[in-house]
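thread: overnight batch results

M.L. [08:02]
morning all. the overnight job finished for the chain we discussed friday. pasting input first so we're all looking at the same thing
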Amino acid sequence: MNRTDGPAKVTGTATYGAEHQISGLVHGYLITADIASGEISSIKTQAALECPGVIKIITHENCPKIIQPSNNFMASKIYEARLPLSDNQIHYGGQIIGLVVAQTFEQARHAAHLVEVEYLPQPPIIDAEKALFTEAPPMFGEDMTFQKGDFQTGDSWDDMNQAAVTITATYQTATELHTPMEPHSIIAHWEGEDKLTVYEPSQWVVGSQQTYAELFGLSREQVRIITPFIGGGFGSKAFPWPHAILCVAIAREFQQPVKVVLSRRQMTANAGHRSETEQTISIGAKEDGTLLAIDHVAKSATSPVDVFTEPCTGITPAMYKADNLRTRQELAVMNVGTPTFMRAPGENPGLWALESAMDELAWSLDIDPIELRLKNETHLHQRQQLPFSAKAFAECLRVGAEQFGWFKEPRKVRGMSHEGKQIGWGMAAATFPGLRGMATVTVRLLADGTAEVLTSGNDMGTGCYTIVAGTASEVLALPIERIRVQLGDSLLPNGSMAGGSQMTATLVPAVMAACQEVLQKAQSNTVSEAIEKLKQSNQEAFEATASSSPGEEGKQWAFQSWGAHFCEVSVDEEIARLRVKRWVSVMNVGRVMNPKTAASQVRGAVIMGIGQALMEQCAFDSNLGLPVVYDLATYHYPSHADIPRIEVTFVGEPDYNFNPAGVRGLGEIGITGVSAAIANAIYHATGKRIRELPITPDKLL
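M.L. [08:03]
and the structure it wrote out:
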């Protein structure tokens, strides 16, 4: 299926958060801190207030009242536990310290630069080597430490010492920025004191509705969230950020709609990022490649205003069987903006380290890396103690090896070259948990032979409009052109969150059930029969609402999607130029609803992973604590010229243990393992093992 929302996006008729036209709209522009630690001693706003068009300037001295929310996933969730403008304290560079409101965007921006701020600075903690790391707190109710076998008895190194080969290495990743195509933005429109409409790119419409209601003392029904289209989110648009909360508060005070759009510079500090990480892995194995022990320790950083751990070790118990296994997470508070979920949070950097270490082990044992993985595949999640459902990881490896043309002869470092360049082949595994939420969908069958599908679940660019329409088309046996889908409005039934690769697995079963219920209400076996009855009845439509949610299956099975990446790189050692030349990805994600958009999701994830591996890095000024990258020119990411053709294949069967559609998500799995595959190929090409991302030219010299 072609994307049903494609024409609207390429012709510009799709309306994004900041594009809604509302009468009487005024504009806000953020004032941000020039230091990373300390406090504000004074803010002088007089010169800015005298500028044409300026309505008001809000600081910590005159901020409207905002209610501290419960800040949990059940009732509400905000990205920073500290409410905006709570006090005069500065916790990170670029922190919001004020908002200028003016008649136009340009007037607000000009005035913001005239506000004079004096600080009492403190030395910021920017360098992870100077930060204090302690045991990370539990995440989603799960302890961040896991151990089994000898690690539980304290004899942790006995088994390592008995190993024929032991690999111990430390792997690092840089701070990464989300940089979605659509900047973070919001329009807040109050009608009186108790009716709020928010136009904002939100990955979780109902969650945002609940959160804004709690922040401003309203019932959920008094808040409406409208977000029909999102220009990319990657985890950074699931909950309200401080700029959005502040905008809603000011709009209530003014009783006038207010728009705030973050600049690219402001997004580096105020829209989340993936924390830098440091991971140390020790693996012990027998001569035949059987793993004896895995010890995985990870470090990441959070901000002073909230706690977020990049859960790198969570994937380790799912990957490879080892009788002795230990994972631990450590966390440090640094003067940086709050990190948050970013495509495959934890799994992405976690597999960078684990799959790199597995490649190092394979070379040390002189075993093919595919053979090593097949030999140690686990069919039991070692932490959950549950068997995996519909796992086809081995098939991913075998099919990928065949399609790529993997080694038939023993590998040799620096054994391949072409036109003066070293050629390297690398591979790595990919995986991501199968997640699913609760969703409700309404389907209306109309007398003109069309159908409507309504739900608040939304599409952040992944193809949800197309999948929902295609599902309804299949069940109702109507052409997809006769299906209209409405998404992204809190007035519609609760469609859950677009995150965690769960939207398709959550929505599709509900769409199927609602379509079947429509036919039952019409007492018809076919849609044509139902339409005839509808015409005779003089009713406007047959309508049905259905819900779908997880049951007891999670107590019987562990749900996980699997994959494998294979790549070829060339390295011109004279100028340290690396090119990714070929790419093959094979994925097992249950039923594939639409191969076209599914393959597109994998390709996009691989491209994002290539950026992580070779380019993406947000560095901070060690004295000021401000990001030294500030736009899409200084933050490097791949362009078309950097990317080869990416071949994507799907294998495996539908996972009917997971849901009635047999579908698992695939938005995030595609990025996992990508950086390791590239680094492994570089080692084959050059003999140089690089353990720090990004792999920039200086590391190849």
